[in-house]
Amino acid sequence: MRRAVVESWLKALGDLLIGNLRSTMLPLPIDKGLCTRWAEGLGVPRGGDTIIYTSCLYQLVPAINKLVSLVGAASRVPELARRAPLGLMRALTRPDEAEAERMSGVVRRIAELLRRSGVEFGYLYEEEPYSGALLYELGFEEAFKEYSAVVARALGRARRVITIDPHTHNLLRNVLPKYQRLDAEVVNYMELIKGVKPSGVVEGEAVVHDSCLYSRYLGLRDAPRRLLDEAGIARREDPYVTGVATSMCCGGPVESINPSLSNSIAAARARDLSRLSKTVVVACPICLGNLSRNAPSGVRVVDLAEAIS
Amino acid sequence: MRREDWSTAIGRAVEHNVPRTMSVLEKYPYVVDLARELRRAKEAAVANMDEFIDEAMAAVKSLGGRAYLAATAEEARKYVEGVVGRGRLVVMGKSMVAAEVGLREALREAGNEVWETDLGEFLIQLAGERPSHIIAPSLHMTRERAAQVIRDRLGIDVRPDPADIARAAREFLREKFIKANVGITGANAVAADTGAVLLVENEGNIRFTTVAPPIHISVTGVDKIVPTLHHAMMEVLVQAAYAGLYPPTYVNLVAGPSSTGDVEQVRVSPAEGPREFHLVLVDNGRRAAARHPVLREALLCIRCGRCHFHCPVYRALDGDWGIQPYSGPMGVMWSAVIHGVEKAGPHAVLCVHAGTCREVCPMGINIPEVINWVRMQYVNKVAGGGKR
Ligand code: SF4
To answer: Which residues of chain A are within 8 Å of residue B378 when distances are taken between CB atoms?
Structure first.
């Protein structure tokens, strides 16, 4: 991509994300109901000392998938993205219903796993803001700085925050403290659940695709492995494919800047993993979306929370 | 380059290099300790860069060599052109800084015959292509393509076999070494205390380049200066091991022009080697980076090329990531050092912060953090950091 094109796309993308975050605390124009759907019928209390923080990331994946398929065109004609009325953007990023249901299901399973492990928690429902991780990771530092106050305020009443994805966990652990004060203890759900069993979704062996953030920024490389072992799900490892320094990215972080690069990183990763097993276990919604879209046929990508129960 | 060619080439390279480097480090664990010690020495050199530059230049002069500090690429080219003159035959041993300042093209335009003698550089010179990896510049070329290039450009019959390709290049270049008027190399390390320049290699072309022609010019960055010869020795060992070949086949130490004291212990110069030695130290943004709290880290890079093999973006972008001749994770940092944030920015925004590069870097450089800083400065400039 030429430099001028990159720059005007960055501007358009920034406007889209920031505009949405300001009005809805979500980066894309999706219905808030999609974020909270997972909690229907579970009777999770509102707020409280310990809260689950979904950051709506799993729930956003279907819309992100849609957006990525548009970015290729939009980044070549940034004016279109800039000028597109909200209604149009909403229609263009309207998630596929089956995908939306699957993602809500993953979050619900995580909540159930926590409960079964004796962890009690509340939820902020429609007052839960998106973490802003995307803003920060794309380099919109100024906008992130401003938005981070919203996040800190929303989470400020809790004493313990349970994250369920690596981007949010990284944001709260490594990024937010540089800009805001957050007194709450931040833990990840994988550190809290125990006594897990196989769900039956994985037949035979599986291979773990590490989230870069969990593995190399957050010291949680062993967490998904411990849970799979506990559930008795055999995993294949190869020092040149699943090692700390050799497990490659899913390409997710550049999906909104350069989708073809993102897809080719994902395809290469999925190909490498598929040599070890036809079932790939991930623990991140972005990895789940990106690898699923680019996996060779016959290869299944499942979330950790789908593999265990 | 065709997409399939790159996939094949990078696939083979990763398959060969990654396990080899890992087993080298396992077998010679003291190299890992040396790397840590070297980092501390380089930190000191970067923190006091101007003093070390002065010390190194004075040391080279006291050895009977000449030392020149070039503030810009242009100054470096001018100085070297002045030493070389016109109508000369020049052989070059791989120098990334020479490529950074555009030396080969400048010398050619000034009417000299110039040959790259490192096999990879030689191949891409023949093909008129750009380097795709910092120490394996022809990484993108499959054996089939390399053989084709030699057949097409030199009319030498050669099979698509790495050994036969090496043979053809050797036969062609041998005569150039003998006849060359000037040899130009880079440097892996420059020892400030002694003025000694160290070069590590496996092909033997650098050894030829440093001794066969009557004039040797070493063109390198001021970031290559380390406090002592002891540290310079460390640097070549560490660089070789992390590049995946240990022990390296040759380590060349050059401390001034050749000399002999064999007749009545009277020291005369030259002897068999060059009569002139020039050290060209290039700044080109490095001294400013040395004062910068983030970019300073980039100056610790010893150019082992290991981060490339562990980078998903470099692998997916056909090696074309970063501003030439720098590529890969180190290349994005170095693009910022030399060309500034605005030009490096479009490269930085493609980083996926996988963090794999940081895991393998011998200097423990937090490469993703440096790149992230570049990205933020850039996005801030072009999109107001998202401020409205
Ligand atoms: S950044 Fe580190 S790994 Fe990469 S080339 Fe430099 S020293 Fe080697």
So the answer is: 139
Chain A / chain B CB contacts < 8 angstroms: 118
* Residue A246 to residue B18, Cβ atoms within 8 A: yes
Chain B residue with Cα closest to A136: B376
Do A61 and A108 belong together in one domain? yes
Atom index in ligand 1 nearest the CA of residue B306 equals 3
Domain region containing A150: 28-66+94-192
Please state whether the predicted TM-score (pTM) of the whole model is above 0.90.
yes
Q: Is residue A16 part of a domain?
A: no
Report pLDDT digits (tens) over A41-91. 999 999 999 999 999 999 999 998 888 887 766 666 666 666 666 677 777
- Asked whether residue A59 falls in the same domain as residue A167, the answer is yes
Task: Please check whether residues A179 and A274 belong to one and the same domain.
Answer: no
Last residue of a domain, one of A137, A169, A192: A192
Residue A207 CB partners (closer than 8 Å, separation 6+): A235, A236, A237, A241, A242, A273, A276, A277, A279, A280, A281
> Which member of B317, B350, B380 has the closest CB to residue A257?
B350
Task: Compute CA B299 distance to the chain's CA centroid, rounded to the nearest angstrom.
Answer: 13
Query: What ipTM does the predicted assembly reach?
Result: 0.94
pLDDT in tens, B17-50: 999 999 999 999 999 999 999 999 999 999 999 9
Q: Separation of B312 CA from ligand 1 center, angstroms?
A: 15
Q: Do A246 and B356 touch (CB under 8 A)?
A: yes
Domain annotation for chain B: domains and CATH numbers = 3-284 (3.40.50.10420), 288-386 (1.10.1060.10)
DSSP A108-146: HHHHHHHHHTT---BB-GGGPPP--HHHHHHT-HHHHHH
Instruction: Look at residue A199 and tell me if it is in a domain.
Output: no
Q: Nearest C-alpha to atom 7 of ligand 1 is from which residue?
A: B301
Which residue from A14, A239, A248 is facing B312, i.e. has the nearest CB? A248
Question: Is the distance from CB of B227 to CB of B192 less than 8 angstroms?
Answer: yes
